[in-house]
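Q: What structure does this chain adopt?
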Amino acid sequence: MRAKSSRKSTTDPATRESKTLPKTPTGISGLDEITFGGLPTGRSALVCGGAGSGKTVLAMEFLVHGIVDYGEPGVFMAFEETGPDLRQNVISMGFDLRRFERAHKLIIDSVYIERSEIEETGEYNLDGLFIRLGHAIDSINAKRVVLDTIEVLFAGLRNESIVRAELRRLFRWLKEKGVTSIVTGERGGGTLTRYGLEEYVADCVILLDHRVTEQISTRRLRVVKYRGTLHGADEYPFLMGEQGITVLPITSLGLSHTALAERVSTGVPDLDVMLGNKGLYRGASVLLSGTAGTGKSSLSAHFVRAACERGERCVYFAFEESTDQIIRNMESIGVSLRPWVKKGLLKVVAVRPTSQGLESHLAAIHEAIKESAPRVVVVDPITNLIGVSNIAGIKSMLTRLIDFLKVQQITAMFTHLSSAGSVRSAESTDEGVSSLMDTWILLRDMERNGRRSYGIFVLKARGMEHSHEIRQFRLTSNGIRIGDVIAEAGVKP
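A:
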């Protein structure tokens, strides 16, 4: 009989845990996913970037989440802004810093350094800062510390040897105190920071970038390095909004989502019949294509109304019309959306595609979905995004969005404006996303005997029986009506 080995398996959870670098969650949406758990516990992270890139906001949110979500007091030491200015600047994000200060969970200290008073005697050191910071940490048993921004401490010094020695000593001192800290720094010329040393002595380096391309502003974040652990190394778009910072991974979530067997109505009974008498699969992605005026938005409104009648929350992302215009137009076909808006079951997010970059749109959609927790989403139309980015960028963005919606088990309908002309042009998308969709419904614009009419048919419906017939499609004052099969249907020449 073979004796059991005393060596613990490398696949044992306890063994894997012992080899994992301890991490402190930041609480910032998306950042903890990118860093696989947060910042290194008891070590220093450098957050660098240009002016207005969001360094101070990220650092302050790190402290606030530590207090609110994890019960970890924090110290914020500023070298540029005063305490009152900091409190005022973040109050728009809902951070009531005075409340945390009164509860002895937060200390905000500002250190004013006059460059003209600094003498290069060779004896410049940070001992006074260590005493002041150490007292603040000990007085509230702080677990998190922010120093904002580090360059100001050495602004008047030209002796690089002193700067380098004191920077090393600062990071070593923070580590010895056992606090998880963020040190912010300004972007240097050709280096991540002004002195080019902070990025080497820090255990984690996060770079923030605020760029404007073709008059569209985009913020991006990248984890440049992270000692002792894996991390996402791509550039990730992020937003700074009323709820703080939201970081959005740009990679797809993959194909690990659950496929549900439940079916939901499209809101048009005759269309449900065309979809195997049961409607759409819950969590499916549906593409609704058609030329201008064929009724894509009208069908989307039926879909949304049916979901609201089931008591499900819906978010309607509109890129062409305002909320009031959508509500008014749908009332003309007997679809009343206003009551559902008032009840809070329907939220219409109307915005011009050119108002922000493609990544920012994706991050904003994520944020709206996170806030509303809908079961149904409409994006109307995806075609308008062409003015924001190239085809490859749009397909990448929509792929990530579709994967996100599937993971959340949200049933989504995307409308697409197709070109008039041949069947081939109608049955294609400039964005190249038709292959990503579970169901594709096409609205056809036809002319017969000098009269214009519309038809509808199901181009594909994965996993279900469906009609292969082209049927009459009409918009009436009482909603959508689907009629008989159209014989010898032809598209408008």
